[in-house]
Design brief:
Blueprint lengths: L12 H20 L25 E3 L5 E3 L2 E3 L2 H11 L4 E6 L5 H14 L3 E4 L7
Parallel strand pairs: 1-4, 4-5
Antiparallel strand pairs: 1-2, 2-3
Membrane topology: Single-pass membrane protein; Single-pass type II membrane protein
Organism: Roseovarius nubinhibens (strain ATCC BAA-591 / DSM 15170 / ISM)
GO cellular component, one term: plasma membrane
Length: 129
């Protein structure tokens, strides 16, 4: 007579995998959520401050006029040739006026790229909403 073979008990690996997955999701969600601001906190108002462009930035005024370090610049090509003469890296920081037409800004960035700018960085105001 053959003795029946005893089966070993199975470990509940599926349940363990589910728990690990749920912990992973929990820590992903808990790590990405930011704490809300204190309702009593009053942020600083900067309405009266003058907005000053960074000193090494090309400023584009609302009428399309360009200026660099306080002096007017004739064109994007003239600006880049002056920067090449200074021996600086050609990464342009562009500060557009809020009222500048978006099409004019896109055209100017394309002109800067065609004239030899390696990168064109548009500097903007960041608001907290």
């Amino acid at each position: 007579m053959i003795k029946p073979r005893q089966r070993s008990k199975r470990e509940p690996t599926i349940a363990l995998i589910n728990i690990v997955f749920l912990m992973l999701v929990f820590f992903m969600v808990a790590g990405t959520l930011a704490q809300p601001l204190d309702p009593e906190l009053k942020l600083v108002k900067t309405e009266e401050l003058d907005g000053i462009a960074p000193p090494d930035a090309l400023v584009v005024h609302a009428d399309g006029r360009l200026s660099y370090r306080g002096a007017d610049v004739a064109s994007a090509e003239a600006y880049l040739s002056a920067r090449e003469a200074e021996g600086e890296e050609i990464a342009v920081r562009l500060v557009p006026d809020r009222d500048l037409d978006a099409g004019a800004l896109v055209t100017l960035t394309a002109e800067l790229r065609r004239a030899g700018a390696a990168r064109v960085l548009v500097v903007t105001e960041r608001g907290l909403q």
